[in-house]
Design brief:
The protein is mainly alpha-helical and 241 residues long. The protein is 51% helix and 8% strand. It has eleven helices and three strands; from the N terminus they run H-H-H-H-H-H-E-H-E-H-E-H-H-H. A three-stranded parallel β-sheet has the order 2-1-3. Helix 1 packs antiparallel against helix 2 and helix 8 runs parallel beside helix 11. The radius of gyration is 19 Å and the shape is globular. The termini are far apart.
């Protein structure tokens, strides 16, 4: 296995045709790096190289995880804290669980817990052995993109409210993705194939705080930069729609 050193330049999102493939590759690389840390330890030159590689992968994933419901911001921050605390055993098992769920699509059928030895069971985690027709028997899954600039408490309130209206008899499963701006809404729709519905609330901003180099390329689809800059706050919602 070749582990990317911290000094190597990670491929940018502009180097990929698919943002989804870029994301999958980075999670796969993080899984391999965390497993190498578990086996080789964090000490010495090799350990430091692996730590730097893991930090670089977390930095690379951070700006694009905003646009997907799984594993979610809280779980992502939890994984990063595990690295900061050098809790490599839990980091390795948790990252492995996320990477497998992304590959198999298991997160679309059930909740994937992040952390905790009680869930570190291979049969629980890995659905890759299931036949495609068996996996297809589950309820359809989609994500709802909510566009509104809210604080952490308000975001939690939105998520909890959406979860409360879900019913076991619903013919589908859905999860919210909450982004603050018109630019983020556009990025979320273009990046995340799971988004099937969009709710635009009146509090959205225009500009994203995400410094993604490919942003201007995608934004050119709704007009030139001068047109975007000229929008007034009252136009943000209709323009996002």
């Amino acid at each position: 296995m070749n582990v990317q050193s911290a000094d190597d330049k990670l491929p940018s999102i502009g180097d990929y045709y698919s943002a989804t493939q870029l994301r999958a590759d980075r999670w796969s690389a993080l899984r391999e790096t965390a497993e190498s840390l578990r086996l080789q330890g964090v000490d010495g030159r090799r350990g430091k190289t692996l730590i730097h590689a893991a930090e670089a992968l977390f930095d690379a994933l951070a700006p694009i995880e905003l646009y997907w419901a799984f594993p979610g911001a809280n779980a992502f921050d939890h994984l990063r804290r595990l690295l900061d605390q050098r809790n490599i055993e839990d980091l390795s098992s948790s990252v492995r669980r996320v990477a497998r769920a992304l590959t198999s699509g298991a997160y679309r059928r059930r909740t994937i817990p992040i952390g905790g030895d009680e869930y570190d069971n291979e049969d629980y985690e890995d659905e890759s052995a299931l036949a495609p027709e068996d996996r297809a028997l589950g309820r359809p899954y989609f994500e709802v993109l909510i566009v509104d600039s809210v604080n952490e408490q308000q975001e939690r309130f939105l998520r909890n409210n959406l979860h409360r209206v879900r019913r076991t008899e619903d013919p589908f499963i859905y999860e919210p993705v909450i982004v603050p701006s018109l630019e983020d809404a556009l990025m979320g729709i273009l990046f995340n194939h799971n988004v099937q519905a969009v709710i635009v609330r009146p509090g959205l901003m225009l500009k994203s705080e995400n410094a993604l180099p490919i942003l201007k390329q995608f934004l050119s689809r709704i007009g030139n930069e001068e047109d975007v800059e000229a929008l007034t706050p009252g136009d943000y919602g209709p323009e996002a729609c």
